[in-house]
Specification:
Helix 5 runs parallel beside helix 6. A hairpin with a 4-residue loop joins strand 4 and strand 5. It is rod-shaped, with a radius of gyration of 56 Å. The chain has eight helices and 14 strands. It is an alpha/beta fold.
Length: about 375
């Protein structure tokens, strides 16, 4: 094995203390643990409203602190020599190089009574106002991007995606993988929230399918609850089945009964506006069709009326033309030739009288089918036709 030189091993006190702080405070294990032991050196600082004491198992000792926000939740009086079970996290003060256990919950009876622990934590968080509606962010009606924190390729994920995509194709989805069951699942979810925040999405959705109380216990984790509360992006959760209830449900900006219900809630405004658009388009289509039909009927009626008028005028004009033609024909002297009449001319002028005619004058007579030339033998006085 390669050995490091002395120079490579050198650190300043600040550097080594910072490294120790990072290792201790970023380790998921040290941020939510139970420690049992006997109270020694118990002190109460009234000015800061804080308890400082040591826990000892007879061989080792650890410094502990209870801050003012936890003290009102204590259900028993602390005394030296008392054996307790403390829940909390490790804090390391790198400037002084000291370690302390920050207590968030105390019990006289160990960690077996999960309901009691959860009740105490619920009361503590409720008293701090983490569940108050005044702190909840509004869920955007039309998010353009959503980070979905869940177990990848799980039934919950596909239920959510399938339901959302059935009506909504305009939202960009980011699947942020996380462990949603087990000892370190709460910290996996916290890290997933941080990744989702960095994507600058409009909404974060945390979903998980059903399971036992133990399977879903990470959603009662205090650190996870506080992370959701502190998030600047709206968070929606859908954990388990309709009957399941967790602290994350209470602290989230919106809690839905199932992952599918989460998707249905998001899709609701999209579906509503889509249905409204379809209804509006149908109404517009109806009005257009009604208008076109009305205009078509009006045009057809106008054309029909014009046809009747034109036909009537055409018939009247035709009749008038026939009458005029008949009158013209009657007025035309040539038309009478076919009826036995004839026209006689003398020297190119039509004769209307025998006056000025004498014997021997040459006359020209026109019939309907020809003409003749004759000479006058005798001019007779006026006599009526037989």
């Amino acid at each position: 094995m390669e050995t490091l030189s002395l120079e490579q091993k050198q650190f300043t006190v600040t550097e080594i203390n910072s490294i120790i702080k990072t290792i201790l405070e970023e380790c998921p294990f040290t941020q939510d643990i139970w420690i049992s032991g006997e109270i020694t050196q118990l002190n109460f600082y009234q000015r800061g409203n804080q308890y400082y004491f040591n826990l000892s198992d007879g061989e080792s000792t650890i410094n502990c602190v209870i801050y003012s926000n936890v003290i009102p939740l204590l259900t028993f009086k602390l005394e030296k020599g008392q054996h307790i079970f403390a829940r909390g996290k490790i804090r390391y003060f790198h400037k002084k190089g000291t370690l302390i256990f920050q207590v968030s919950y105390l019990s006289e009876h160990g960690i077996g009574n999960e309901h009691k622990k959860l009740t105490a934590l619920t009361q503590q968080l409720s008293k701090e106002g983490l569940f108050d509606s005044i702190h909840k962010l509004s869920i955007p009606s039309f998010p353009t991007s959503i980070a979905v924190i869940t177990s990848p390729d799980s039934a919950a994920m596909w239920d959510f995606v399938t339901t959302l995509r059935a009506t909504t194709h305009y939202v960009k989805l980011f699947i942020v993988p996380a462990v949603v069951q087990g000892d370190h699942s709460a910290f996996s979810l916290i890290e997933a929230i941080d990744r989702a925040i960095r994507k600058n999405v409009d909404l974060i959705t945390i979903i998980r399918g059903g399971g036992s109380a133990e399977d879903l216990s990470s959603f009662n984790n205090e650190l996870l609850v506080r992370k959701i509360f502190a998030c600047s992006i709206p968070i929606q959760v859908g954990i388990g089945h309709k009957t399941d209830d967790h602290l994350c449900d209470h602290v989230a900006d919106l809690s839905c009964v199932t992952p599918t219900a989460c998707a249905e809630y998001i899709a609701g405004p999209f579906k509503q506006i889509r249905e409204q658009l379809i209804q509006n388009l149908r109404q517009i289509s109806y009005h257009i069709e009604h208008k076109v039909q009305k205009d078509r009927d009006s045009v057809f009626q106008t054309l029909s009326n014009m046809t009747v008028i034109m036909k009537s005028k055409l018939e009247a004009t035709t009749l008038n033309i026939k009458h005029l033609l008949s009158s013209l024909s009657e007025a035309n002297p040539l038309s009478r030739l076919s009826k036995g009449f004839s026209i006689t001319e003398f020297k190119g002028k039509r004769l209307h009288s025998v006056a000025n005619l004498k014997k021997g004058d040459r006359l020209e007579t026109f019939f309907h089918n020809g003409s003749i030339t004759s000479r006058i033998d005798e001019v007779l006085p006026k006599t009526p036709l037989a």
